Amino acid sequence: MMAVRGKDGRFYYTLKEFSFDAFDKSGRMSIWKLSKVFEGLRALVNPHILPRHVFGKKLLFIRAQQFTIYPKFYTKITQNRAVNLVTSHSHIGRTSFSAVEELIDVLTDEVLVHGRYHCVVVSAETRRPIPIPSEIANSIQVVQPSDGEHPLRDPKFLEKLPKCFSNARTVMPSDTDSNKHLNQADYLRYGFDCVSMAAVNGKLSAFHDDMAFSNTKQVWIRYLSEAVVGEEIRSTCWEDGDNPRLIWVEFTKGSEVICQCQIEYYKENMKITHEPLPSPKL
Which of 83, 97, 225, 270 could form a disulfide with 258 if both were Cys (CB 3.0 to 4.6 A apart)? Predict the structure, then answer.
């Protein structure tokens, strides 16, 4: 592994291989595991923008994130495929900032995943947004994004349709992170499980099997509130009225909506035909 390195406002990290458990029964990398890869990148980059003396007093909470997964992701990514992870900050506001993330194939320099996220600085005591400290603001170099849509814009969440599927699960200790709440990637895991259960139970017109065998095109997720160990979370999903391959997921805790998610799938599934790695030179 190589240490994260910064240049011209961007941070770079080379991941030489993925863990075995990043891949599911279909041979594809789970999208929630992909989210953990980017979460790991942020853990390496954040010390560069959050000085040690403010750790513990202020927390960085992801408010929303979005991933676009390109088709070649499904033919190139294997456990021993090296990738470059690149991130840069695209916007800084009063209490929050936005960033762009990319997962790039080392061999071909192709972008396989493009991501964006919106992060809020909060008080560790109150969990409420606070102004970005000067120590952070002065260390963030903004790189103007090409799409010009930052901070991350949220889609208008579709009203729940009568034909939907719902299931509940209890937050377990292994689902939580150092902030002692349900980890952002585990929300995605709960959501993908809900969609899979809906498919196998005949609640989705375009899918009838475990969604591990379908190729995700895009994911957007917005975190509204926290969940902790022992609390019951209900996940409800339904297909979009105009596009059956676009699935909406809502997470509730009692009557409170705590998270919203949108998952879009490719019309055709890419076959898992991994490209061979080049032979080593002696």
Answer: 225
